[in-house]
Amino acid sequence: PRDRGARRARAAPNANDDAPAAADADADAASPGSAAPARADPALASFLDWCAPRGIALHPSLVARDVAAPGADRPHRSVFAANGPVRVGDVLCEIPRAWCVSPRHASITSVLPRRALDDLDDAALILTVMYERALGAASPWAPYFAVLPSGGEPLPFTWDEDRFERSLAGTDAYRRVREDEPTMREDHARI
Q1: Over the chain, what HEC string results?
Q2: Phi, psi torsion values for 120, nearest 5 degrees
Q3: Tens digit of each residue's pLDDT (9 = 90 or more) over 135-176
Q4: The whole model's pTM is what?
């Protein structure tokens, strides 16, 4: 039986919705460890081995792949791709609620009371992730964090003004970052 509180990601409709279904609709989700033929990256292999005993399950057609940047020492990204049919509405990934990183389930509750975290609203998740990453191997989510990019994400709100203007002027992303910037700065100040 699956945890009723599990988070599920479903396949979305696309232009091929009229195509005949090629997969059995009742196929059970496979563990990520059994779905990954490419295990060249030790961090990805550790993550996949970590998933199964926690009840984290993938659709049987999904496989994990290491994606390396040209000349990189190790893959910087791991992706999940379909190597078989996936029908609209199929559950792609199921994660028990207890293994979703959140202020309610994380180690940070050992150093900050929940009430303090509740007062931070959305910024509490940012602080939670920062705390778990700082714990390193001692974090229950260490294998998950090990497969995330470590060089920092190329987030536009972290760019200098010149790069921001040069890269995004005239785009919807430009407008959205400008609109969100005061809220992001307010969250940063609260943390």
Answers
A1: CCCCCCEEEECCCCCCCCCCCCCCCCCCCECCCCCCCCCCCHHHHHHHHHHHHHCCEECCCEEEEEECCCCCCCCCEEEEEECCCCCCCCEEEEECHHHCCCCCCCHHHHCCCHHHHHHCCCHHHHHHHHHHHHHHHHCCCHHHHHCCCCCCCCCHHHCCHHHHHHHHCCCHHHHHHHHHHHHHHHHHHHC
A2: -85, -5
A3: 999 999 999 988 876 666 667 777 888 988 888 888 988 888
A4: 0.61
Please state, in angstroms and rounded to a whole number, the distance separating the CA atoms of residues 191 and 182. 14
CB 125 within 8 A of CB 112: no
Contact (Cβ atoms closer than 8 angstroms) between residue 24 and residue 106: no
